[in-house]
Amino acid sequence: MSSRVAGAAAQAVSAPWIDAGDLEDRLALADAPEAHKAFARDLARDGLAIIDLGDDLLDLCDRIDTETAHHFESGATRVHDAWRRSEAIRRVATHPEILARLALAYGREPFPFQSLNFHRGSQQDIHADTLHFHAEPGGFMCGVWLALEDVRPEAGPLVYYPGSHRLPVLTMAEAGAEDGGTTAANYNDLYGPAILRQLDEAGLKPNLAMLRKGQIAVWAANLAHGGSKMLDPGSTRRSLVLHYYFEDCVYYTPMLSTKDRQARRLPADIATGGWRWPRRAGRRVAVPAKQLAAAIVYRLTRHTPRF
Ligand SMILES: O=C(O)CCC(=O)C(=O)O
Is the Cβ atom of 239 under 6 angstroms away from ligand 1? Predict the structure, then answer.
């Protein structure tokens, strides 16, 4: 085998199934329900796929509302990591039907590491998660968005650009940041316009995710998405976002990294309340002492009961 062919084969083995180029061959051999295979195909094609478990999640949606309502009383617009105090969020995050679909689509075991709750539309600028959470090998990260109520058009639905996950990953350096690092100013001034230019040049058009309560949208790490404008500022759009990584990867934050320094992460594992050590081909890689200390303090001070 030539080294070029060997290199391509190694990349295919280490890439998520949805990116590997031979998804159909892999699915043909996989012992998985047809609905899970259809999910993997949708995610590979569009960069976003829907999970519809019928009425299964409706009770959990209500429980998540109840368990997180107090966070929004003081006017908070988004709540980070409410999973540490909400059993209902942990139940959704570790739902076997979600984990099984992600495991099939990526070919590795997923684990949820972060949650965000929204009471209203986020109106977040268009971005790809590859700037916020990245992995080596690339692509092993995804977002999971659960509608806690029916999404109405005036409430600022999630917006996404089908097919944009296939565009080159846009880094801060490519967006024009000198040392590749990020500040609040250059994120808004450089990254925002650069990703819109990239989408425009590729001729990609936005779609709104009009989900019903209990439906889930899963997006690939490099899918361009955000929150569309709220046409009715009084409307609610209660939703839960979960971010997943996959086993045996190096996890890092590109927007805090520079050309010379990779800002590695020690992500939490919502299933255990502990953390997942970054690995390359099964072997642990180093994380900065500061990250480790922060993870230990977090673990000790915010105990999460197992269930
Ligand atoms: O829910 C939304 O409006 C957008 C959420 C989002 O962009 C994200 O969590 O990355």
Answer: yes
d(CA 35, CA 260): 44
Distance CA 145, CA 227 (A): 12
pTM tops 0.85, yes or no: yes
Maximum pairwise Cα distance, the chain: 63
Rounded mean pLDDT, 64-89: 93
Domain map of the chain by residue range? 30-246
Instruction: Tell me the helices (H) and strands (E) count for the chain, helix number first.
Output: 10, 13
Question: What residue type is 116 in one-letter code?
Answer: L
Residue 233 has pLDDT above 50, yes or no: yes
- In the reported structure, the alpha carbon of residue 123 is separated from the centroid of ligand 1 by a whole-number distance in angstroms of 8
| Candidate from 208, 241, 253 with most ligand 1 atoms within 8 A of CB, to mutate | 241
> Three-class SS of residue 197?
helix
- CATH code assigned to 30-246: 2.60.120.620
